[in-house]
Amino acid sequence: MTGFRALPSVDQFLLSPMGRTLIDGHGRTAVTAGLRVRLDAARAAIRDGADGDAEAARLPHLLAADLAAAAQSDLRPMLNLTGTVLHTNLGRAILADEAIAAASAAMAAPLALEFDLGSGGRGQRDDHLRGLLCELSGAEDATVVNNNAAAVLIALNTFGQGRQAIVSRGELIEIGGAFRMPDIMARAGAHLVEVGTTNRTHPRDYQDAITPDTGLILKVHTSNYRIEGFTAEVPAPHLAQIAGKAGVVLLNDLGAGSLVDLAAWGLRREPTVAEAVAEGADLVTFSGDKLLGGPQAGFIVGRRDLIAQINRNPLKRAVRLDKIRIAALEATLRLYRDPDRLAERLPTLRYLSRPQADIAAQAAQLAPQVAALLPGYTVTTTDCASQIGSGALPTDTIPSAGLRITGAGGDAPDRLAARLRTLPRPVIGHIRDGALILDLRCLDRDEDLLGALSA
């Protein structure tokens, strides 16, 4: 049995072929620090009776594994087989190829972000999106910020700071991360005035609440829940009349927001941005990374004079977009000019509109191949119910199909799910009725799943 002398010194290892290879890949500082940790562990093992030659032989491989693990980002790509298409925890929308190319180009070179190529003077970054947003929504003007929460915040702050903001009790929503409308109104400096009841709000409730201190009326689309039964709400056109007569701003927050009628692809109809504008809202806010299928952003469209006031708000600079997202958004919005090919080119809409029969055929083909890669588990096909996610159409599901994986022991699904999360390309499903379910609605290519499992 050999002892400590079998272990290399730090300098010896760094000058060895393996040391030089690791330095090329990870840098001298990281390799040196990791080597010292591994040498300390090897010495401790030898003191406990381990063989020095064996510890020396293991050292390079353990160090290489440590460095590879430390270099791996937790933001690595994964397969979303949860059945939730717009999964907030997984980054929501997958961008179209055109948007990815535009973002890459913006990252690789200078571009005319705030530079007017015609005059040679300073330009406005919103100009790259303003025309498209006005064209697609029918609004007079438009501006953009970093998400829809910021869009609501800056609109409330601009027109409600120190003034009253009227909203129905049935629309005082909470979205993910404990984001509550009353809290954001308070941060915006607006004084919340609740009207109506949880399930019923009438025109007179708004009319009776308006005072000389009223700055705006806020209508919120309840996109992440439904109130059913004995209910009443004031339609947006009627609310626009009330706000117009009183001379206050009507802000309609659509939340997810859609530029097209989803019913054309077999989904339940949601109010479109163009409809909200046509119904008389002074301002309409909506998201860029939900139903629209782009990167994270918040849009505000509406009256030109009101948009100008928002753009003069000092908060605008704090919530503005960078060049990468502006480039990706412009490319995404351009796709909406060709609605006939939108489902082919926009991943979000392509996933949402995939026929169940196509997904079931994919599941049948994959089941035996996946079973071969998961010895000890049983893999069968199953029907699934996908969700849109991110608060859109919360009570609706879309018929789908996938793989049902079971194994020995009651904790088999949890053990397998944990294993799949450790893969170089993690695979994320959901557990239901004692099985791990992999919903295939968002799986573009069979080889993506087979390659991930083969690792």
TrEMBL record:
Source superkingdom: Bacteria
Organism, as annotated: Paracoccus acridae
Reactions mediated catalytically: L-seryl-tRNA(Sec) + selenophosphate + H(+) = L-selenocysteinyl-tRNA(Sec) + phosphate
Pathway assigned in UniProt: Aminoacyl-tRNA biosynthesis; selenocysteinyl-tRNA(Sec) biosynthesis; selenocysteinyl-tRNA(Sec) from L-seryl-tRNA(Sec) (bacterial route): step 1/1
Function: Converts seryl-tRNA(Sec) to selenocysteinyl-tRNA(Sec) required for selenoprotein biosynthesis.
GO terms of molecular function: transferase activity
Compartments reported by the entry: Cytoplasm
Record's protein name: L-seryl-tRNA(Sec) selenium transferase
Domain L-seryl-tRNA selenium transferase N-terminal: 4-43
SUPFAM superfamilies reported for this sequence: PLP-dependent transferases
E.C. number(s) listed in UniProt: 2.9.1.1
Record keywords, A-Z: Cytoplasm, Protein biosynthesis, Pyridoxal phosphate, Selenium, Transferase
Top-level EC class: transferase
Cofactor(s) listed in the protein's UniProt record: pyridoxal 5'-phosphate
Family listed: Belongs to the SelA family.
Modification N6-(pyridoxal phosphate)lysine occurs at: 290
